[in-house]
Amino acid sequence: MRLLFIGDIVGKPGRDLLRQGLPGLVECHQIDFVIANAENSAGGFGITREIGEQILDLGVDVMTSGNHIWDKKEALDYIGTEPRLLRPANYPAGVPGNGGYLARSRDGRSVGVISLMGRVFMLNIDDPFSVVLREIDRLRERARIIFVDFHAEATSEKLAMGWYLDGKVSAVVGTHTHVQTADERILPKGTAYLTDAGMTGPHDSIIGVEVEAALGRFLTALPARFETATANPRLNAVIVEADDRTGLATDIERIQYSADELHDLGRSVLDTPERSARGARERERISAAAGSPARVLGGLGCPSGVGHRANK
Ligand SMILES: [Fe+2]
Ligand SMILES: [Fe+2]
Q1: Residue 44: is its pLDDT beyond 70?
Q2: What are the two backbone dihedrals, phi and then psi, of residue 102, each rounded to the nearest 5 degrees?
Q3: What pLDDT sits at residue 268?
Q4: At 200, which CATH number?
Q5: Does some domain include residue 63?
Q6: Residue 21: domain span
């Protein structure tokens, strides 16, 4: 099973990247199941029903979230009607929505997804370490493959969760900082780990916000209206391959694509490459442009953007 997890989708630039790039990514990287963090998908703050439906229509199977999930008030109602939208599982009892979901891939395989939030430099909600074990137990009866999005600020807390769940889930991948880390690995007992998947949105920004406004807050401490930036949109994500029998990871690869790279990727794999000479030339061109890190999957040239991979 090959899972694609997309780092926090920020506003329209993030959604546009998804629209433009997801079909090509799924095809090129032979993805079976797509998870995306959608906590910033509506103007950088929260999610609406309309935007949630758009993201699902684009091919995302399950949406995770974090501290921004409630920024748009309608999320309180929406989450009660859409089980494929998760809020962190360790919000106190009685909060709308769920933090875990048992899904099925297009070919009928079960996948468990858990959304979880850290407490260091964040809201003091319930203990994520005890809550996650309950969620795993609940999903384990039906799914070998379990993916955990740990939405947290502190690297130490994220690493602690990775080691805590090593051997118990397929992957622990962090979100929230909006900056992709370079520490992808498979832990000794078989859990894929990455401290932060990064952000799918405008990268000429301060974690998605216009530089002037966010910098001004640091310089003056005065309140400022934060607008989502637009420049340099990039998709940040990670691909985890897990063994269907054991649920443990066999490969992890983090990826980053600019809008142009996604466009080229889509053209190369979706223009019926086997049948089109133009498609073949495109594949060659993209592989050459990507240089040595380019990998070949299923006979298709499929560059990783500037990402890297580590396998067992
Ligand atoms: Fe975020
Ligand atoms: Fe967050």
Answers
A1: yes
A2: -95, 115
A3: 85
A4: 3.60.21.10
A5: yes
A6: 2-259
Q: Distance, CA 94 to ligand 1 centroid (Å)?
A: 23
> Per the structure block, which two tokens stand in for 141?
């009866």
**pLDDT at res. 270:** 82
Q: How many structural domains are present in the chain?
A: 1
Kindly state whether residue 308 falls inside one of the protein's structural domains: no
CB atoms within 10 A of CB 100: 21
Q: Which residues are catalytic?
A: 68
Percent of the chain residues topping a pLDDT of 90: 84
Cα of 273 from ligand 1 centre, angstroms: 36
Ligand nearest to the CA of residue 208, numbered in listed order: 1
Predicted model pTM:
0.90
Contact 232, 14 (CB under 8 A): no
- For the segment 236-251, the average pLDDT, to the nearest whole number, is 98
Give the Å distance between the CA of 176 and the centre of ligand 2: 4
Degrees to nearest 5, angle at CA 235 with 234 and 236:
115
Kindly identify the ligand whose nearest atom is closest to the C-alpha of 118: 2
Whether residue 297 is contained in a domain is answered as: no
Whether 130 and 231 have beta carbons less than 8 Å apart is answered as: no
Centre of ligand 2 to C-alpha 153, Å, is: 8
Contacts of 17 (CB under 8 A, 6+ apart): 9, 200, 201, 233, 234, 235, 257, 259, 262
**The one-letter amino acid at 119:** R
> Does 190 map to a domain?
yes
Ligand nearest to the CA of 200: 1
Query: What distance in angstroms lies between residue 291's CA and the mean position of ligand 1's atoms?
Result: 31
Q: Is the pLDDT of residue 275 over 50?
A: no
